[in-house]
């Protein structure tokens, strides 16, 4: 282990404000900007999962299959995974104000297009444009907090960010369920649009630059390789669900192989470019052990979260026979649990570090998934709510410590790259979780139907299959949690352990 001082990087932005020393409290201007970023991020990320409860309605209204409807969620994640790798470059090159305005303008335009959509193709196009704005917003929020918030207060602030990262997707099904009970599915976008436009207008007046910018080279080859790498992998993973139904657009090996080859080229390209600090995604972040351990846990946790967000609504509607309103309301307590826990966990992190929080969180997460393997067509609704609350409680104890310790362990010059990497891999994990859970559920349902089971019994069998393998995967999170250690951000300012 070696101790190095991070390189000083002078600002080339005339509007950049010097970052306050670690001992200073946040000034009102910083609080206002971070508050607006938090609200805006919550709104845009909420839309990542707002379609999950609506899938059965959309399948009927648009005459599409479950595998096709799944693309409204996985297509959103696919776009984010393609755009987010470039945010490491964007956050260094362009002002915070400019990026905020770009992100919210894209999101607002995509929301309007989706609200006006006459069919599936236009709706998917609107979702893709929405995702372009969302992909910029979350790394912008995290990098701003890392630069503007003193290290000893980051746990508390990251707890608030965890509400955005995890709770917003968790309550997306609830919001859509309430809307769909009384209105057409297009109102999921009409009701969000005024909020997005208001955020854009307030941001135009209030957002100021809190971070430094500099001129960095733009590598076109890295962008191309990144697009094929992350895009190919998520396209392949998302096609697994359609392949299980025999309706894939192309053989799975084509996008997956293209993704793997492009990923290898992308990694090699970044290793060369980072020698001159010009990488699109600087992989020196992986020399930090806390960062690597956190990545593993985040991947498994995000797979569990998004897998459950896609399977549970289908279980509640197709097996227990609930309508969209009751489905959304039953998922609300779980989101509330995570929202309540996130800031509490952030404060606990500042006092005790990640290890006493992440280990029990991983155990509770695994226990909840194993409990979900017991769900049948006769399971009481109260038990479903309890399992979902346990799942979200476990995730609440995992996300805040992981994000804080992972990014806090990096050199300041790597903050934007670390944020881009974590957010990119989150999308990859979310797409993988969605695809794997849907595929396992479809396979289990088909096998039960072939054995002579009725439709409801077969659907319950498919849900059991999905949650069983999800529970098996969760054991990886339990094992990885034992490797978590306290971050090194308590060291004197300007000193980082690599």
Structure description:
The chain has helices at 28-46, 55-62, 66-69, 71-83, 87-93, 96-116, 120-148, 154-182, 187-190, 193-206, 220-244, 253-273, 289-318, 324-352, 355-372, 381-408, 415-450, 455-481; strands at 3-4, 496-497. The model is unreliable at 1-23 and 489-498 (pLDDT under 50). The radius of gyration is 22 Å and the shape is globular. The chain has 18 helices and two strands. Helix 1 (28-46) runs parallel beside helix 8 (154-182), helix 4 (71-83) packs across helix 7 and helix 8 packs antiparallel against helix 16. The termini are close together. The longest helix is centred in the last third of the chain and has 36 residues, at 415-450. Helix content is 73%, strand content 1%. The chain is mostly helical. Strands 1-2 form a two-stranded antiparallel ribbon.
Strand order of the largest sheet: 1-2
Largest sheet composition: 2 strands, antiparallel
Span between termini? 6 Å
The topology string of helices and strands comes to EHHHHHHHHHHHHHHHHHHE
Radius of gyration: 22 Å
Number of strands: 2
**Spans of at least 5 consecutive residues with low confidence:** 1-23, 489-498
Structural class, judged by helices and strands?
mainly alpha
Helical residue percent?
Answer: over 70%
> How much beta, percentage-wise?
under 5%
Shape descriptor: globular
- The number of helical elements comes to 18
What integer is the average pLDDT? Answer: 80
């Amino acid at each position: 282990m070696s101790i190095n001082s991070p390189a000083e990087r002078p600002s080339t932005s005339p509007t950049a404000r010097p970052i306050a020393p670690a001992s200073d409290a946040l000034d009102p201007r910083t609080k206002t900007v971070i508050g607006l970023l938090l609200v805006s991020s919550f709104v845009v990320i909420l839309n990542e999962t707002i379609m999950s409860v609506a899938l059965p309605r959309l399948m009927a209204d648009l005459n599409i299959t479950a595998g096709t409807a799944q693309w409204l969620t996985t297509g959103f994640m696919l776009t984010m995974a393609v755009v987010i790798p470039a945010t490491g470059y964007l956050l260094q090159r362009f002002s915070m104000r400019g990026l905020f305005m770009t992100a919210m303008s894209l999101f607002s335009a995509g929301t309007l297009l989706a609200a006006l959509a006459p069919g599936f193709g236009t709706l998917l196009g609107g979702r893709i444009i929405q995702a372009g704005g969302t992909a910029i917003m979350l790394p912008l929020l995290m990098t701003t907090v890392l630069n503007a918030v003193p290290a000893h207060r980051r746990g508390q602030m990251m707890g608030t960010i965890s509400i955005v990262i995890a709770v917003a997707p968790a309550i997306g099904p609830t919001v859509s369920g309430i809307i769909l009970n009384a209105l057409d599915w297009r109102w999921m976008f009409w009701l969000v649009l005024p909020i997005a436009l208001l955020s854009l207008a307030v941001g135009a007046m209030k957002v100021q630059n809190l971070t430094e910018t500099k001129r960095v080279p733009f590598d076109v080859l890295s962008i191309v390789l990144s697009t094929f790498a992350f895009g190919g992998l998520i396209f392949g993973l998302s096609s697994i669900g359609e392949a299980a139904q025999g309706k894939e657009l192309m053989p799975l090996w084509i996008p997956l192989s293209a993704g793997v080859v492009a990923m290898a080229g992308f990694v090699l390209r970044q290793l060369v470019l980072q020698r001159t600090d010009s990488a699109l995604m600087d992989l020196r972040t992986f020399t930090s052990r806390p960062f690597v351990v956190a990545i593993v846990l985040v991947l498994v946790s995000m797979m569990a979260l998004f897998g459950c967000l896609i399977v549970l609504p289908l279980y509640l509607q197709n097996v227990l026979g609930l309508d969209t309103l009751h489905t959304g309301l039953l998922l609300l307590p779980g989101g509330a649990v995570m929202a309540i826990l996130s800031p509490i966990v952030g404060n606990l992190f500042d006092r005790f570090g990640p290890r006493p929080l992440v280990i029990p969180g991983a155990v509770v997460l695994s226990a909840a998934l194993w409990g979900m393997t017991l769900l049948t067509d006769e399971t009481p609704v109260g038990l479903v709510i309890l399992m979902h609350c346990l799942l979200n409680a476990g995730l609440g104890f995992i996300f805040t410590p992981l994000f804080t310790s992972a990014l806090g362990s990096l050199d300041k010059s790597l903050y934007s790259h670390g944020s881009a990497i974590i957010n990119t891999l989150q999308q990859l994990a979310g797409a993988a979780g969605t695809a794997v859970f849907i595929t396992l559920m479809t396979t289990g349902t088909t096998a039960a139907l072939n054995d002579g089971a009725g439709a409801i019994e077969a659907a319950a069998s498919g849900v059991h299959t999905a949650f069983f393998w999800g529970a098996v995967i969760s054991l990886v999170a339990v094992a990885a949690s034992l490797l978590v250690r306290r971050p090194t951000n308590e060291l004197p300012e300007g000193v980082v352990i690599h």
